[in-house]
Specification:
- It contains four helices and eleven strands, in the order αββββββββαααβββ.
- By secondary structure, it is mostly beta strands.
- The chain has one domain: Aromatic compound dioxygenase (Protocatechuate 3,4-Dioxygenase, subunit A), CATH 2.60.130.
Length: about 180
């Protein structure tokens, strides 16, 4: 019998090999209604992860995606719906965007405004996928089919909290208050 093949993990090249200068800008700076979605990526010990990469994908404020498969039509000019940001030495990340609108679920119900978030970091065999919902949307969140399927403690890990210039969403990879991740 031959020896086992060593396991491989993703990274640590993300923070310097994949970003591009305007990656964190889903909309151009100065766009009316733009908000910052910011946070810190933390490991299981609560320490910042300095070389992670986060990608976001979202609808525009009207609930439309900048994608040809969206049957409702395109988005407003200047909104690409996709962002990419490396973490800094303190594990911080930030994306400038517009707060998304509600989008239809596959069964026709409305999903609460949310941003899809992927996290890439060394030590991971694959990306982690979650959603960022907005704490100031209680009615929409209460009716959201994805949030409704989760127990209350898990729902709480998916809520971005309002700040003076947008929202804060920390990603906890493990441990107490670990962010809820989806197996997709």
């Amino acid at each position: 019998m031959s020896a086992a093949t060593p396991s491989q993990t993703v990274g640590p090249f993300f923070s310097h090999a994949l970003p591009w200068p305007d990656g964190p800008y889903v909309v151009p700076a100065g766009t009316q209604g733009a908000v910052w979605l910011r946070g810190t990526v933390l490991d299981g010990a609560g320490e910042p992860v300095p070389d992670a990469l986060l990608e976001t994908w979202q609808a525009d404020p009207a609930g439309r995606f900048d994608h040809p498969d969206d049957p409702r039509g395109g988005t407003a000019g200047g909104f690409r719906g996709f962002g990419r940001c490396p973490t800094d030495a303190d594990g911080r990340w930030a994306i400038l965007t517009l707060k998304p609108g509600q989008v239809p679920a596959p069964d026709g119900r409305r999903q609460a405004p949310h941003v899809a978030l992927s996290v890439f970091a060394r030590g991971l065999l694959d990306r982690l996928v979650t959603r960022v919902y907005f704490a100031d949307e209680p009615d929409a969140n209460a009716a959201d089919p994805v949030l409704a399927a989760l127990p209350a403690p898990a729902r709480a890990t998916l809520l971005a909290q309002p700040t003076s210039d947008g929202y804060r969403f920390d990603v906890r990879l493990q441990g107490e208050q670990e962010t809820t991740f989806f197996d997709i």
